[in-house]
Design brief:
Blueprint lengths: L2 H6 L2 H8 L7 H8 L7 H14 L2 H9 L7 H5 L4 H9 L7 H18 L14 H9 L4 H24 L7
Helix pairs in contact: 2-3, 3-4, 4-10, 8-9
Length: 173
């Protein structure tokens, strides 16, 4: 899909197409739609990122709370969004053994208790072996730093999802 097509979308179509580039937050796509026209795909991505950056801390934390736990209950129940299902499956999280699931459940619970939102990681850029190590490492971070890190992961996920929708190769950052 080219940027001209994106710029020509009406509100409903834009929200339908881009409503989950920020997990379960179509309101972000709704706000970004009003910023048209976009000069290119990078400009579109910058608008999503700028929206997140402009939110107060409570809003940023709310965005993070829309994300599922990695390898968590929603994966087990099959209630993830299609995008999250593909991302977690691609990272090998659907093939965890019982001990691995238990370890991640415990780490996810500790993380959520410490920070008040789920652990967010761009699963497509990781793998199942790295996940518990990264979760344990980030549990030690100060809350302000972890909020910035988690939002950075949301932006990576957004970039990857936009690249999928626009049929382009996501540039590494």
């Amino acid at each position: 899909m080219d940027i001209e097509k994106v710029n020509s979308m009406d509100f409903g179509e834009f929200v339908d197409v881009f409503g989950n580039v920020i997990e379960r937050c179509p309101v972000v796509a709704a706000a970004v739609w009003s910023q048209r026209p976009f000069s290119d795909a990078d400009d579109l991505e910058r608008h999503f990122s700028a929206f997140l950056d402009a939110l107060p801390v409570a809003g940023q934390e709310g965005i993070l709370r829309c994300h599922p736990d990695l390898a968590g209950r929603e994966l087990q129940l099959g209630t993830l969004t299609a995008e999250s299902q593909r991302e977690q499956s691609g990272a090998g999280l659907t093939r965890l053994g019982a001990d691995e699931r238990l370890q991640l459940a415990e780490l996810n619970a500790q993380y959520r208790a410490r920070f008040g939102f789920p652990f967010v990681l761009a699963a497509r850029l990781s793998d199942r072996a790295a996940l518990p190590r990264e979760l344990a490492r980030r549990l030690q971070c100060p809350p302000e730093q972890e909020l910035r890190t988690a939002l950075g992961e949301v932006k990576k996920i957004c970039r990857l999802r936009l690249a999928d929708l626009l049929g382009r190769d996501p540039a590494p950052r």
